[in-house]
Structure formats: C-alpha cells, structure tokens
Amino acid sequence: MAEEGDRTSFPRRTDLPGHLGEVYYCAGLRVRSPLPLTARVVEGPADVVVVRGEDRPVPYGRPSDEVIAERVVDGRPWYTFAQRGEEVVGRFYGLADFEIDGSGRRVTYHRDPEARDLVAILIAGSLVAYLLSSTGRLVLHASAVEVDGAALAFVGFSGQGKTTVATLLCAEGYPLVTDDLLPVDPGLEGVTCASAGIELRVREKVEALLQRFSSGAVRGRTLDDRHAVAPPTTSKDRLPLAALVVPWPDRAANTVRARRLPSGEAALLLARCQRIEGWTPPSQLRAQFNSVSAVVASVPVLEMHVPWGPPFPTTLAEQVVAAAGAVPPVARATSGSALD
Predict the structure, then answer these.
(1) pLDDT tens for residues 305-327?
(2) For the chain, how many helices (H) and strands (E)?
(3) Taking the model in full, what pTM does it have?
(4) Fewer Cβ atoms within 10 A, N terminus or C terminus of the chain?
(5) For the segment 288-299, what is each residue's pLDDT rounded down to a tens digit?
(6) Beta bridge partners of residue 89, listed in sequence order
C-alpha cells in the first residue's frame, strides 16, 4: 500500500524480465500479471498470463484493417482492437500495445517509453473487459456496491457520476463490488454479476468525499492522477443483480428522483454503455443484443436524478438506496422482445 500523499496507489514496478508476478481475481478472470493490479490476489493457476515485451513507440495507426472494436472520440482514436495474423492487437494510442495470442490466454504488452505508465490500469480495466467481451459476455461501463446481498449498479458514460455515487454508498458502509467494469450474466436463475477490483478511483472535483472515509482507506493518487480509496469490499465472487441505475447529476435538485425506463429505452442505453465500444463482428453484435435483451427483461433499469455537489447531502446514500428499491425486481417485463 502506498503511503499517504504518494502519487500512485500501486507498488513500484516489478515487471522485470523473468518476473511472473501474482495471480489476481479480475471480474471472474484469474490474471497473472508482472505489474501489481488493484484486485484481489488469489492462489492457483491463471486463466490469462500477461508478460512484458520490449518498450517501443506506439504509433497513431491501426494495427491492421481487420478492426474488431474501436473507440473514437471527437475524431481522435482512443483504442483499436484488430486481428493481425493469428493474434489480436489492442492498441491504446500513445500508451501501449497488447498482443493477445490466438487462445486469448497469453498477452504481451509493449509500453510506449514516452508515455505515462498506465499499463496496470489498462490490464485490470480495458484488457480484462475485452477478454471477457470477446467470449460473448456483456461487460458494462459501471460501478456497483452490495446492498442486502445483491449488487446495485451505476451505469453510464464517462464522467456521468457512476464512481461518485458508488463512493457515496461505500462511505456509508456498503461494500464495493466493482468500479469501472461490470460483467453481467443472464441465466435461468436470474441475472448475476462478477465482483472486480478493490478500490475506487475518485476524480479531483469530488475530493471532498474522501473526508467521509477513515484515513486508512485513502491511498493517495492513482497512476491516472485520481484519488484512490480502498473501502470494504464484497466477500462474494458473484452476486445477483438487483438494479441498474443511470445517474444524472442535478445541482438544482434537493431530493433523489427515479423512474424506471421502458424496456426499449433501457436496452438502447445499455447497448451504448459497454466497457469496450465499437464492436464490428456480427456474431459479437448478436451476442450483445441477446444479453442486453435478457437483462432488461429481468432487471429494473432506472434513470435517477441525484442532488449534486460538493457539498453532497449527508443523507444522499440512503436516498439513492431507497429510490432504487422503490421499483421491486418482481415488477419486471416477462414477455415480448426487449425492444417492443
């Protein structure tokens, strides 16, 4: 654990030649990484082994024309996953390349020597999300906490307040389930999700929330220059999913207001809030459609206007939980397409 005031919540680099690292539980995947990850260390064999390759410049060009998934913001590419021969290359422009072998079980990364070293964050976040999604699973851009033995998740776009709301609840004692990515699995016995990670990365503008935690929970700065908080975490690897909440920060509001989204609106929103964006393979798109349809048929998706700060109301966490519980899981659509 980094000391108070450190610039990073991660220990020093350990990805030296020959260093295999620890095995971490990351959203259901057991990942062996030479870099310390903000995830629980586990025993036994790994599902995926990450190794360090040589440092080299990462150009602003696609690895190949066989694009699998890609995110472009305001005309600027953030990342591209593309097939190149037998392997898939995940290129995070100006940061790192991840070469994923044909089995998806071995990944070699090449860091740009001129870039900020964000590889550990990319491994535990985007790489794990891609590996899970590429098998057909639905991985949402979401944070979640445990409430009464189930997961209450906050889903949305970057900067929408997902982590902030989760932080508010964790400060009141609700265990953390995940921050940033949420693998969701519909099944015959309902929709479940996997836990992931052991800390929250809080943006500078809501730094005041850190005062609600004990001093031992605040771990300094993360590699991407946010505040790191290590709250109590769920003891479960998998939990039932009680509800998905889309938070809307509202500085003019005094109380929390929530409404359940119609199934079609909910499905379109979840389809847009996947952790890895811009998928192109038809088989992947079909799998995502089927998963999203199954989720919105079984789990309430709520739009929630949340009084925003700082300062944040002292009763805000309780208001959020109460509003989310006002739409019981039994009041669900049980017939017809999710897009009806």
Answers:
(1) 999 988 999 999 999 999 998 75
(2) 6, 21
(3) 0.88
(4) C
(5) 999 999 999 999
(6) 82, 99
